[in-house]
Design goal:
The protein is α+β, with helices and mostly antiparallel strands. It is built from 6 helices and 9 strands; from the N terminus they run ααβααββββαββββα. Strand 3 and strand 4 form a beta hairpin. The strands form 4 sheets. A 3-stranded antiparallel sheet has the order 1-9-8. Strands 2-5 form a two-stranded antiparallel ribbon. Helix content is about 45%, strand content about 15%. It is elongated.
């Protein structure tokens, strides 16, 4: 929780990631609704791509996670402890019929790739967001954003590449963003 709060307060997370302290999951949905409403009002074309990462937290690799968490401000000693904890934790399933005999853990076994932190675990979301951060930064650096401007043209334009909550991310593109990107390229 402290790492998540620190990264949020320091402004490290992407502005379009709404799975952060002090933000609402409804804001991600509202971004989509406003995106289409502004397109309609301005009579522009646009596109929205929804991505939902299947079993995203199960695919968080501890070795990568500790590196990206360090970029968010995690102290080195905490990073080592965190890595050992993620690698040594063994998960089972417990139901009304008892505990499962089969287990799983975050291993580096190449025959069983992508066994990460537990879905629903306390460390799952900050780990996933820390790994998502470099991807979103690369996306913003290399891709065309959607540019928002109210039909009245009184408000200043702003750009948005993504909007999402946790592992559900939407990518935006609109006519105004494409035109502005072409103008920027011509300069």
């Amino acid at each position: 929780k402290k790492l998540d709060r620190h990264a949020t307060e320091a402004g490290i997370y992407n502005a379009g990631q709404f799975a952060s302290p002090g933000k609402l999951c409804q804001s991600a949905i509202l971004n989509k609704v406003l995106f289409f409403d502004i397109l309609r009002q301005n009579r522009h074309y646009g596109a929205l791509i929804d991505n939902d990462a299947t079993a995203a937290f199960d695919r968080v690799l501890p070795a990568l996670c500790v590196v990206t968490c360090r970029q968010l401000g995690m102290p080195k000693e905490a990073q080592r402890f965190f890595f050992k904890m993620l690698r040594r934790t063994i998960y089972t399933t417990t139901t009304a019929h008892g505990r499962s005999t089969e287990t799983y853990s975050a291993s580096a076994n190449p025959k069983v790739p992508g066994q990460g932190v537990m879905q629903g675990g306390g460390a799952s979301l900050p780990n996933y967001k820390s790994q998502q951060l470099p991807v979103l930064k690369a996306f913003e650096k290399n891709c065309t954003p959607a540019v928002y401007r109210h039909a009245s043209k009184l408000k200043v334009k702003f750009r948005r590449w993504v909007s999402g909550f946790s592992d559900d991310i939407s990518l935006f593109l609109n006519e105004l963003g494409v035109r502005m990107s072409r103008l920027d390229a011509d300069l």
